[in-house]
Amino acid sequence: MKEVRTRFAPSPTGYLHIGGLRTALYAYLYAKKNGGKFILRIEDTDRERYVPGSVEIIYSTLKDAGLIYDEGPDVGGDYGPYIQSERKNAYLEYAKQLVENGSAYYCFCTKERLEEIHEKGATKYDKHCASLSKEEVEMRLARGDSYVIRQNIPETGSTTYTDMVFGDITVDNKELEDNILIKSDGMPTYNFANVVDDHLMGINYVIRGVEYLSSTPKYNLLYDGLGWERPHYIHLQPIMRDATHKLSKRYGDASYEDFIKKGFLKEAIINYIALLGWSSKDNTEKFSLTELVDKFDLAGVSHSPSIFDEQKMKYINSLYVKEMSEDDFHNYALKFYGDYDYLKGLDLKFLSTLLHSRVEVFTDIGKLTEFLTQFDGYNTELFTNAKWKTDVAVAKAMLPGLIELTEQSFESLHDALIAYGENNGYKKGQVLWVYRIALTGAQSTPGGATEMAELLGKEESLRRLKESLIRL
């Protein structure tokens, strides 16, 4: 059996979109599951859409996500160059071979003529130049007329191939257009360069979006015309924003880098993306990349589109967060603590122990700690708690004693608070509720009364308790 060779061939048009990353992931998983090679090729022939710096983003994203390619522009390999614009001299040679055997032809139609036939209702090119004599073609080439090279699709019959997900696909040839292979500037179109590059790089498993399902016969006719073996095809249904809209870079849908900035872990991003169009036989949802390689099979690839659900992705992320050691959680959280000036001066290691079980994504740090900035002007009705039978009057009666014990017994605060309640006829829950509200001014905090005092420190705790008493 031939070595399995898959490829990811993105255009450098910006950040690596989630849909593109899923294609890369599935290509990686299929290659590794079958002991093959995963190749990166940069398709940069569309210079108008080229975004400076995006090639480097592709490299760094794939490597950070763990999708290590065996061959590529920055790692080398036996089938380079791996940047399409550096391969341009090969394409015209193969296009001319197709012209020689009748699988393609020179087209000299002007832009005006093409616009005219479309205005008259034509939905595709009318093969006008396919009937030019060899002599006329040679004469027009000799005098320097501008031309393109078009594929010569048969006008009758049909073309059939087998997709490894969708089975046999048959398309009537009359539905296919004589697409341009070589543009007037001598550069290949994406459709042609893709076929040539895949063949020359030995790519024998092509994994791509389902939008190419019906146009694949055009590519197969090119393979046939050049006497090359067709690759195997695996087409993937799109990822949707909702029931009617595809997830799309064009509409600002998030990239891998966006989700990293939102506080998602790379392992969780890859895990969730794997589930957008594939499921395991046992319906397991949490996988390491190594486990995905082991479990991945085409039988689990969906025939239906998947809807991107960020809440589900957060849930997957939370599973990974909970599995982190305390040190790993703290070290990762440090990247986000710096975004919040109000956390400066606090015991961040202790804060991490409070947040670890509450964080789904690391940007939750903001909403879980924002109470620290909202102490001034808090609503004193927060002291009212029906369960503990507390209100503003109860708080006002308690606070002088709570301030005194904080000054005297901060190092053994929990025991001091319990003793205060017992000595003054209050239940434990009443004391802890009043103390925590007076300290934070917040309905919800990532820890209890004594934990909040430890986080704030003795001096700040006393300042806040005294401020609360003044307000009451």
What does this structure look like?
This protein has helices at 18-33, 54-64, 88-100, 111-119, 134-142, 190-200, 216-225, 256-261, 266-274, 289-295, 310-323, 326-337, 348-355, 364-369, 392-409, 413-424, 428-440, 449-456, 458-471; strands spanning 5-8, 37-40, 104-107, 148-151, 158-163, 167-172, 180-182, 205-209, 232-236, 239-240, 306-307. The chain is elongated and about 110 Å long. The strands form 5 sheets. The chain has a 3-stranded antiparallel sheet with strand order 3-4-7. Strands 1-2 form a two-stranded parallel sheet. A two-stranded antiparallel sheet has the order 5-6. The model has no long low-confidence stretch (mean pLDDT 95). With 472 residues, the chain is mainly alpha-helical.
Kindly name the structural category.
Answer: mainly alpha
Ranges with pLDDT <50 over ≥5 residues?
A: none
**Topology as H/E string?**
EHEHHEHHEEEEHEHEEHHHEHHHHHHHHH
DSSP strand count: 11
Helix content: 40-55%
Helix count equals 19
In which order are the strands of the major sheet placed?
Answer: 3-4-7
| Global morphology | elongated
**Largest beta sheet, briefly?**
3 strands, antiparallel
Give the termini separation.
81 Å
Instruction: Report the average pLDDT across residues.
Output: 95
Radius of gyration: 32 Å
Strand content: 5-15%
